[in-house]
From TrEMBL:
<dbReference type="InterPro" id="IPR029058">
    <property type="entry name" value="AB_hydrolase_fold"/>
</dbReference>
<dbReference type="InterPro" id="IPR000073">
    <property type="entry name" value="AB_hydrolase_1"/>
</dbReference>
<feature type="region of interest" description="Disordered">
    <location>
        <begin position="21"/>
        <end position="40"/>
    </location>
</feature>
<feature type="domain" description="AB hydrolase-1">
    <location>
        <begin position="59"/>
        <end position="242"/>
    </location>
</feature>
<dbReference type="Pfam" id="PF12697">
    <property type="entry name" value="Abhydrolase_6"/>
</dbReference>
<protein>
    <recommendedName>
        <fullName>AB hydrolase-1 domain-containing protein</fullName>
    </recommendedName>
</protein>
Amino acid sequence: MVHYASCTTVLQSLSNGYTLETQIQDPPPTSSAPDQHGPRGIALLAHPLGRLGGSLHDPVIRTLSHRLVTLGYRAVAFNSRGVGQSSGSPSWTGAGECEDIQLLLRHCLETWMSDCERRAEREVDVVVVGYSAGGLYASKLDLDQALRGYERRCEVRLRLVLVSYPLDVVWALSIFRTASYTAGLEKLLILDPATASESSESTATETVAPHPASLLALYGDQDQFTKVSSYDAWVERLKCLAQGQERVTAVKFQGADHFWRSKELLDQLADTVERWLQTAS
């Protein structure tokens, strides 16, 4: 088994021809899952808009990555196209970044299942953190596509953490493609009965994740780009879409803006994610 005992930089080639700079770290064996067969799951972290200086070195990404490692996850932070050592250039609509995170998630799952073979026979816990524009790209993940063709059948649970989701400016970050991001997030939260039926009839050579995602939305009441009233209404809509189940959790931070500048706020952010993951487990 490959064990990333310290934060390790890996230039990951994707099947679409792009290369992403990633930083990977595993928890020490003593903080891994109780069965000691490796990390409890994967945590993938997406940073804010690269065109405006976002990178895997962002304090929010680094803080949450470190906390997720202490909780027993293999943390994979990455630079999007055109940032750091990643190839290409940022796209104007986010379409390229959405494709990249999808392919990177598939690679992470394949690698994790290989490195942690015995644990992968039962379940995979996947946490995807998207901060600001990174939340846009995370919201369009397609788990069915990412899992298609696996040799083992296992249970995959997606836990989506959106930090300062740029709700009121999605139109600007995507060149008026807001609807596609809205639909992507809704698809993650709603279990399609047809998909569930297909999952129950799938063969032993397929891996299917019939479970809709759980969502934790974190935002400040002083966000510079999205009104707090917009956030509040958005959360209520997502809860309705989740049909009243406790799969949508939102925490509003008093005094926090879009950038989470103080160590106190960063610690509160990490503590909130930790409590949510422990409750959701």
